[in-house]
Design a protein that fits this description.
The chain is mainly α. It contains 27 helices and eight strands. The strands form three sheets. The protein has a four-stranded mixed β-sheet with strand order 3-6-8-7, sandwiched between helices. It has a two-stranded antiparallel sheet with strand order 1-2. Helix 6 crosses helix 22 and helix 19 runs antiparallel to helix 21. The longest helix has 28 residues. The two termini are 51 Å apart. 44% of the residues are buried.
């Protein structure tokens, strides 16, 4: 009951704060509301982060800062409020008799698809959500895209447009969250355990230099609106993206999106241009609720707002700066380029613009280099090597083969998207300078400038910096996180190019336009399929989700230990299960009692155990942790128990199990051998 009340109050408070804050900005009502709401949220995140760094962040302090926001907004609005800008009158919508049946059918298809995904959820370990979903889901998605497009062709009002687009994006972005109710990936469990610890103790040690903005946002939802933390931690990014992506589109000025006017007056223009645009967006950046993906979403929204509004007003600059600072506190990989982007957007001098662009082009590598020195993990400069190209070429791109329909989709789909994106980019760059009558227009200059700056940062991080302390699988991960940001920064150009492309399509015969519309809906369906890990002839995913067996294994070990301290050598799935059950309350000196991938020496001992399972290797891990406890002065008794977990889906599971059975003290199978637990006692 309390959660339902919180879910009802949340949009009410968001609407009130956005409406009041929007009156402080010299912007049209739609844009003022969106930027005002984001500025209020950003202010909460910045203020909460300051309290955390200076002291602690208990729930009562969050409540006070949140409740004081409304009197502050009201007093500012009373003193500095501006007369509301009149939005342009709505354009004639034409015949609407078919809109409501199409909108109702679109909503029914969205609900049916969401329910189908929900009933297909699994608690077993699987490498891809598509293995759980029937093929009919792709038919439903295709029909959903088609009916949404036809409904939007009648150009309904803002609220109905937002509703239709959100109902399309929820099942698009929510597949992993719906299919894997226990959670997907490892980062989600780490962040949720950290947030639970902060909610319980008010702080965490050591205090993280980033992620805090995301933690404050989730704590506000949990502490003030009583929404379960697991719900927030899994749904916040897909839900926010489903709302904010349509919001920035409907608030984007039409004279920028359509610099030559609507093509021949066709009402399909806006609907198809949006679908063309989102087919080229990296929507995979919004399917999981990690701090990086939340920061990417804020990055996308700020770029679109900054491109579409005038930044001559100090209030507009301040609002954008607050949101960008909040993005920096969520994740610096998105926040640092965003702040550089605003500096370029705010200045009027070409000289200062070039200076900020030059600094921004090398700032991320410089930050990584300095941060590595502070952490005593130096990053050194190197020359590009052929191995650095690993991961840039899609699987099967050079050696395509078509064994199944999905092999064909996996090979041809990226080519179609690349061709479409290239065409729209070329059209957009040619068209963007028309707005304002010169090539220094914001859409052309700012979007392409930011994308270029990010490309230079990516090239430097990927090819000229080496972090040898990271494992091979993680060595290029930080550079690769810039790839979605490059596409997001270039997205206004892509949308403008999509609208320009339609000017050549609309005069075609109706039969040809129908064929192109069907191809577009098929392209979006392919895009949906490629958003998530796949298991087909071209791609073999190795990212298994956390299963019920992982939880059962962690519980069994806890019971078998009977209160005695122990350590576990297992993969990231069982470590994530332990985090969800026990949080960060248990540590053995500076180390967690389960391996934390790429962050714990136990991970190295786990890999050694995989190579040669033996009591000697288990004893080496135990001796190392006991020595670390003695060095740091922890109060944990000496560890005498070591457990080793083996999943049946490991490629070398049979050899590892047979070897471990010859030297383990105890052996226990979970769910018929899906997990085997080997115990060592010393």
């Amino acid at each position: 009951m309390a959660t339902a009340l919180g879910l009802l109050l949340l949009p009410l408070f968001a609407g009130i704060s956005g409406e009041i804050a929007g009156r402080l900005l010299p912007l049209p009502r739609k844009q003022g509301f969106l930027l005002g709401l984001l500025a209020v949220i950003g202010f909460q995140l910045v203020l909460g982060s300051i309290f955390f760094y200076l002291w602690r962040l208990p729930g009562w302090l969050l409540a006070i800062q949140f409740l004081l926001t409304f009197p502050l907004l009201l007093s500012l609005e009373r003193r500095y409020g501006l007369p509301p800008y009149a939005d342009p009158p709505p354009e004639p919508t034409g015949v609407r008799r078919l809109f409501y049946p199409l909108a109702a059918l679109s909503f029914i298809l969205s609900s049916t698809l969401t329910i189908l995904l929900f009933v297909s959820r699994t608690w077993d370990a699987t490498p891809s959500p598509w293995l759980q979903i029937p093929t009919i889901a792709f038919v439903l998605f295709f029909l959903l895209v088609l009916t949404t497009t036809l409904a939007l062709a009648y150009r309904p009002g803002i609220r109905l447009t937002m509703f239709l687009l959100a109902s399309l994006l929820i099942p698009t972005l929510g597949v992993a969250t719906l299919i894997f109710p226990l959670g997907y990936g490892f980062d989600l469990f780490v962040h949720e355990a950290t947030i639970r610890y902060i909610a319980l103790h008010g702080t965490v040690t050591p205090k993280p230099p980033y992620y805090l903005g995301a933690y404050v946002l989730e704590l506000i939802g949990n502490e003030l609106f009583l929404i379960p933390l697991h719900w927030i931690n899994t749904w916040v990014v897909p839900v926010l993206a489903s709302v904010l992506i349509p919001a920035v589109y409907v608030t984007f000025p039409q004279h920028i999106l359509w610099p030559r006017g609507m093509p021949l007056g066709h009402k399909m223009g806006n609907a198809i241009s949006f679908l063309l645009g989102i087919s080229m967006l990296p929507l995979s950046a919004f399917i999981l609720s990690t701090p990086q993906q939340l920061a990417d979403l804020f990055f996308f929204v700020v770029v679109w707002i900054a491109v579409s509004v005038s930044t001559e007003s100090r209030r507009t600059k301040l609002a954008l700066a607050i949101v960008s600072l909040a993005t920096l506190l969520i994740h610096p990989i998105a926040g640092i380029p965003l702040l550089c982007f605003l500096c370029i957007r705010f200045v009027t001098s070409n000289t200062w613009g070039w200076i900020f662009t030059g600094v921004g082009s090398v700032l991320l590598p410089l930050v990584f280099f300095l941060f590595g020195l502070l952490k005593h993990q130096p990053i050194h400069f190197t020359w590009p090597h052929v191995s650095n190209l690993q991961g840039l070429i899609p699987d099967g791109f050079l050696t395509p083969h078509f064994g199944t329909l999905w092999d064909f989709v996996g090979t041809v789909g990226p080519g179609l998207l690349f061709l479409l994106g290239t065409s729209c980019a070329w059209m957009g760059i040619r068209t963007a300078h028309i707005v304002g009558g010169h090539r220094r227009d914001a859409v052309y200059r700012v979007s392409t400038g930011l994308a270029t700056m990010l490309v230079i940062n990516f090239l430097l991080l990927r090819f000229f910096l080496a972090a040898d302390f990271l494992p091979d699988s993680e060595r290029f991960s930080y550079a690769d996180r810039l790839l979605p940001l490059i596409l997001l920064s270039f997205s206004p150009i892509l949308f403008v190019g999509a609208s320009r492309l339609l000017e050549y399509i609309m005069p075609l015969p109706r039969s040809m336009k129908t064929i192109l519309l069907v191809l577009l809906c098929l392209t979006l369906t392919v895009h949906w399929y490629r958003l998530y890990p796949r298991q087909d002839g071209l791609t073999r995913s190795h990212l298994y989700n956390v299963s019920q067996n992982d939880l059962d294994g962690a519980r069994f070990i806890e019971g078998a230990a009977d209160g005695r301290p122990y350590i576990v050598l297992g993969d990231q799935a069982v470590s994530a299960a332990a985090l969800s059950l026990y949080g960060f309350e248990r540590t053995m000196g500076p180390h967690y009692f389960y391996p934390i991938p790429n962050g714990s020496p136990l991970s190295e001992w786990f890999l050694k155990m995989n190579e040669k399972p033996s009591a000697e290797t288990a004893d080496g891990a135990r001796t190392f942790i006991n020595a670390e406890c003695a060095r740091t002065g922890c109060n944990t008794p000496e560890i005498t128990l070591v457990y080793f977990l083996v999943h049946d889906y490991w490629w070398d599971a049979t050899r590892i199990r047979e070897t471990a059975k010859t030297n383990a003290a105890t052996v226990r199978e979970i769910d018929g051998g899906k997990i085997v637990i080997f115990g060592y006692e010393f």
